[in-house]
Design brief:
By secondary structure, the chain is an alpha/beta fold.
Length: about 350
C-alpha cells in the first residue's frame, strides 16, 4: 500500500477534503481520519466509478472521489492540489471521454494502476436519438436533423463532440455493461493488491449478481408498455434504451450543457404527439428549465430520470441500485407499462 499516507495528519486530510477531494463511505471516512495505515488507496473520477471501487474493494480500500456530491461531472476541472493527491494513490479508476481534465491528469500521473472503464466494455455511438433505431418504424430516424449535435465548445474551451468521439461514455446506465466493467475492475484490483485478491473476487461476483438482478427487473418491468419513446434532457440513456428496446429522444446531446436548436424543439413536439409521449424527463444535477419549457409547450408532465452521475439529498435513493430502481418506476409510468 502507499506508505506515504501514514505520515499525513488528520488536519491535512481534512484540509484536502475541504478543497474538494471528498471521501465516500463510512469505511472510507474512517480510514481517512485514521491516516490510512494499510488500505488500498483508490482515486475514482466520479460516483459510478467510486461505487464500483467501494463495492469491490470493501474494507480493503480507501476510495476518494474527484467529483463532489452535487457537482456535474462533465464540468469538473482538476485542481493543482487534486493533481498532487493523485500521485499519492495506489490506483485510479476513471472513464475516459467523460471528464477531459481527469483524463489529462491521470494520463500525466505516475500512478502504477490506471483503470479506464471505457476499455472494459464496448462503447457505442449515441446522439440525441438512441435506442432501437431502425425498429422505430414511424420515420423519425430519417426525419431527425440533429442540428444540436454540432460541435460545442464550453467556457473551458473543451470541444464536447471531440470529448465523446470514442463513443457514448454513459455505460453505467446499462446494468449489463456496468457488470462487464465491474468484472474488469475486480481483476485489476486483484492484480494490484494480490494480498486481498480472494475478497475482491468474491465482492465482484456479488456485485455482478446484483446487477444481473437489476437487469431482470428492467426487462420484466418494461416488457408490456404502450410506447417505446421517452424524452430526456440530455442523451445519457442511450445504452439503457438500446438494452430494453426503447428509443431515447434527448433535448440536448451527450453534453448536458448543449443548447437545443429551435428545429430540435419543434421536432420533439412532433415526436411527442406522434408517439404518445406523456412525460419529459429532467435530471437532478443540471437545470430543468428547458425540459419544463418543452413540457409546458406540449402539455406534457415532467419527472426525474436520474443519470446517477452523483448522489445528493435530492436523489431518489442513497446508492446506485436505489436510484436505478426509481428510474425504472418513472419509466414504467411514462411508457404505460403494466
Amino acid at each position: 500500500m502507499n506508505v506515504r499516507r501514514r505520515h499525513i495528519s488528520t488536519v491535512a486530510l481534512t484540509a484536502v477534503a475541504a478543497l474538494g477531494f471528498g471521501t465516500l463511505t463510512a469505511c472510507s471516512s474512517d480510514s481517512a481520519a485514521a491516516g490510512d495505515t494499510g488500505t488500498f488507496d483508490v482515486v475514482a473520477s466520479f460516483y459510478p466509478m467510486a461505487f464500483l471501487a467501494e463495492r469491490i474493494g470493501g474494507e480493503h480500500v480507501h476510495v476518494t472521489s474527484l467529483t463532489q456530491p452535487g457537482q456535474e461531472p462533465h464540468d469538473l476541472e482538476i485542481s493543482a492540489r487534486q493533481t498532487a493527491q493523485l500521485e499519492e494513490a495506489d490506483a485510479a479508476l476513471y472513464l475516459k471521454g467523460l471528464q477531459p481534465s481527469v483524463d489529462e491528469a491521470i494520463g500525466q500521473s505516475p500512478i502504477a494502476t490506471k483503470i479506464d472503464a471505457a476499455e472494459l466494455t464496448a462503447l457505442e455511438e449515441h446522439g440525441t436519438e438512441a435506442g432501437h433505431g431502425e425498429e422505430h418504424g414511424d420515420g423519425h430516424e430519417d426525419e431527425h436533423g440533429h442540428e444540436d449535435e454540432q460541435a460545442h465548445e464550453d467556457e473551458h474551451g473543451h470541444d464536447h463532440d471531440h470529448d465523446h468521439e470514442g463513443g457514448d461514455p454513459h455505460i453505467w446506465l446499462d446494468p449489463v455493461k456496468y457488470a462487464e466493467v465491474a468484472e474488469g475492475v475486480g481483476k485489476a484490483f486483484q492484480k494490484a493488491d494480490p494480498d486481498h485478491a480472494a475478497d475482491y473476487r468474491k465482492n465482484t461476483a456479488t456485485l455482478v449478481k446484483d446487477l444481473e438482478a437489476l437487469d431482470e427487473k428492467f426487462r420484466t418491468g418494461l416488457a408490456n408498455r404502450t410506447t417505446d419513446v421517452f424524452v430526456t434532457s440530455h442523451a445519457a440513456f442511450g445504452y439503457l434504451a438500446e438494452r430494453y428496446g426503447l428509443t431515447e429522444e434527448a433535448i440536448s446531446g451527450l453534453d448536458p450543457d448543449t443548447e437545443p436548436s429551435g428545429a430540435r424543439v419543434k421536432e420533439l413536439q412532433k415526436i411527442a404527439k406522434d408517439d404518445g409521449v406523456t412525460t419529459v424527463f429532467y435530471e437532478t444535477l443540471v437545470s430543468d428549465k428547458t425540459a419544463k419549457t418543452l413540457a409546458g409547450d406540449t402539455g406534457l408532465k415532467t419527472d426525474v430520470l436520474d443519470p446517477v452521475e452523483g448522489i445528493t439529498d435530492h436523489s431518489r435513493g442513497e446508492d446506485y441500485f436505489q436510484v436505478m430502481e426509481a428510474n425504472l418506476t418513472a419509466l414504467r409510468t411514462a411508457l404505460g407499462a403494466r
